[in-house]
Amino acid sequence: MNQTALLNGEVISVNSRNEVFEACLIEDNKIAAVGTTEEIKKRITSSTKVIDLHGRTVLPGLIDAHMHLFLYGNTLMHLNCKEPSIHSIQELLEKLAGIVQKAKSGQVIRVFGFNELMVEEQRYPTIQELDQLTEEHPIVITRTCGHIGIVNSAALKLADIDAATPDPQGGTIEKDNNGSFTGRLIENAFLQFNQYVTYSDEELFDALTKAQEQLFAYGITSVHDAGGFDENTFRIMQKASNKKQLKVRTYAVIASLNDCENFTKNMIKAGVMTHTGNDFFKIGPAKLFTDGSSTGPTIATREPYTSDGDNYGYLMYTEDELYSILSEAHQNDYQITVHAQGDKAIEQYLGVIERLLDEHPHDDHRHRVEHLGICPPDLQEKARALNVIPILNPSFPYEFGESYIRNYGERTDYMYAAKDLMDQGIITAAGSDAPITTVNPFVGIYTAVARLTRQGTAFGQQQKVSLMNAIRMYTYNAAYASFDEKSKGSIEEGKLADLVILDTSLLNSPIEKITEIKVDATMLDGEMVYEKNKNRNGVGIK
């Protein structure tokens, strides 16, 4: 038996009483005990590995309850407008020109994280500007929201999009006043386009390797993968799991960023079931997209946008259409979820859940809703009555808060409304939606507590939660959202030894310093998979 003792620290257990201990003991891959340093010392032997925490915090392994594992990994391999930041379209075009010069014939050139609000010109690049760079290589620029793309003519040709191609339901192939393409593909037009620019198995394995390395460096030991590019990403996850190369614990949502409806229908028809799997790879809920992006802005709202009195966003389905698709999954005991950001989309989805539960009651369904953006009191109450689990994105206001205030006005008082939801006893979890925004969980924890944007703008201050509740959203509550609360999400005897050692005391850190906290070490299944300033083997895919 291998023993590791963590002594003289701040062990935040996230148990039902939110107890904080001095020490804990790990035996093999399980937590054996928590208590005072003296209590744990009595159980160690001469062969026990002892780590003196010197007051540093130990947390349960952090759980990102909504992120895109492969898409995030790919942003680490391609040009990313966020890291390092690109400040102008001219700078972007210059970087693209350099990539084009080195690209193989016909190679797709990808860019992630573009935000027209963060460049000097305050606009999108034009199709003419991209065409001037190359007529041979498809260029695909993914906006920071992931719901809008900017492409060149070679990319349109690759997807067989021409002047006669109709707009898909819930999407727009944008044209200017002269009927010419602008290069902008919005919502379903972009999501469906992505099936023509797929990735090789080698690229997907590389993306998974790079994503895992970064996740461990942030103390994240489990993720809920909210959808990959297509069926290939699902296959790669299973293949990696079978070879024990999938190191981060993954709850794989049945969803795809490309043609999500057909992918989900086909997976259900094939009998791929929620709960199937093991501690490292498990099938999650069946998912659909019901509206658009909060920063687009393209979310479906009950009242028009504050910034545009004629705009109510995109609603992908009627309620009857949504009911028809999700009914089979619910009846066959799948957990189900949807992407729903605007209050109109949330209202529609909750109406469908109410119908499903009336017709086919299910006591512990744990149906989820991803994002739950604008959620006023009437919808909060309905979510509580239906026992729906919200998966919020606390870091969204940190990066996008000013645009939310401009587009939605006073409705931001109920955006990602963590305090209201938790005060009503609703188990509420959190995810980054990386790479839409930073995967760093401490940015999310900070924003849940402070409700300030990166620029210091106050954002829905009445939704501030306590530090302990913010931690709970990234630990126990996220484990509950995947039916895993009995095995992880808190530091308690018998649970999996997934732990994070921080570089300081979290409880004694000033709120404004939380974003600066670093991870000293990450333990997964009783073994160190990350140690700061130490090169380690075994976290990648060989």
In brief, what are we looking at here?
The chain has 542 residues and is of the alpha/beta class.
Could you please describe the fold and organization of this structure?
This protein is α/β, with parallel strands linked by helices. The protein has a domain at 70-196: Diaminopimelate Epimerase, Chain A, domain 1, CATH 3.10.310. The strands form four sheets. Strands 8-15-16-17-18-19-20-21 form an eight-stranded parallel beta sheet. The chain has a six-stranded mixed beta sheet with strand order 3-2-7-22-23-24, covered by helices on one side. Strands 9-10-11-12-14-13 form a six-stranded mixed beta sheet. A hairpin with a 2-residue loop joins strand 4 and strand 5. Helix 13 crosses helix 15. It is globular and about 80 Å long.
> What's the N-to-C terminus distance?
28 Å
Q: What name does the CATH topology of the domain at 70-196 carry?
A: Diaminopimelate Epimerase, Chain A, domain 1
Q: Biggest β-sheet, characterized?
A: 8 strands, parallel
- Principal-axes geometry comes out as globular
| Cross-sheet strand order for the largest sheet | 8-15-16-17-18-19-20-21
Give the overall average pLDDT.
Answer: 94
Give the strand tally.
24
Tally of contiguous helical segments: 17
Percent in helix: 25-40%
Structural class by helix and strand composition? alpha/beta
CATH-derived architecture of the domain at 70-196: Roll
Task: Give the amount of beta strand, in percent.
Answer: 15-25%
- Quickly name the level 1 CATH class of the domain at 70-196: Alpha Beta
**Unreliable parts:** 535-542
